[in-house]
Amino acid sequence: MSTPVLNRTAATDAPVLEILADRWSPRAYAVDDEVDEQQLASALEAARWAPSANNTQPWRFVVARRGSAEHARIHDALMGFNQAWAGNAAVLIVAVAETTSPDGSPLPWAVYDLGQAVAHLSVQAHHDGLYVHQMGGFDRDALRDAFGIEERFEPVTVVALGPIGDAADLPEALQEREAAPRVRRPLAESLIAS
């Protein structure tokens, strides 16, 4: 029996694009559905065209499909309850920021720019019917070791991507989170000055 999912469209304080209001981060991924390679390529292409300071493009991605050794290595580096659900995602992506240039100069906006690239990726993926969930709970050093990531690069987030699954397949505590209403503080509380 499927767990009902509430309407996930955000109740916004001001009008936004429908794709932004509809985007959300599920934990239930379809374990038997593969990702469409063209849709994955489009999501990565959207990330490629994100803006960056001085066009440095300080993002790199480790892209691993379910069933591969790379997917397993990323899954093994996840911590806590992320391991309970993220392995079902068709693709796991390690989003990495180049925080120092090859000559040793700091790239202070690299993490911000990577965030923009992942945001572009997530919107394109959602547009194409895929779902994205970003995670901060992972072992950075394990990922560095697993993929030979140099010290001047920083793994910032792990992204689960794929077709949505049935929340009933999740552990009970996560089923409750999957069906919980989406909430955000009011826009006015995010403004320091306006």
Automatic annotation (TrEMBL):
Keywords in alphabetical order, please.
Oxidoreductase
Q: What Gene3D superfamilies does this protein map onto?
A: NADH Oxidase
User: Is Oxidoreductase set as a keyword in this record?
Assistant: yes
Q: Which Pfam families match?
A: Nitroreductase (PF00881)
* Stored PANTHER family: NAD(P)H NITROREDUCTASE YDGI-RELATED (PTHR43673), NADH DEHYDROGENASE_NAD(P)H NITROREDUCTASE XCC3605-RELATED (PTHR43673:SF10)
User: Hydrolase: is it a keyword of this entry?
Assistant: no
Q: Which family does it belong to?
A: Belongs to the nitroreductase family.
The name under which this protein is listed is: Nitroreductase family protein
Q: Where is the Nitroreductase domain?
A: 21-82
- Signal peptide from the UniProt entry: none
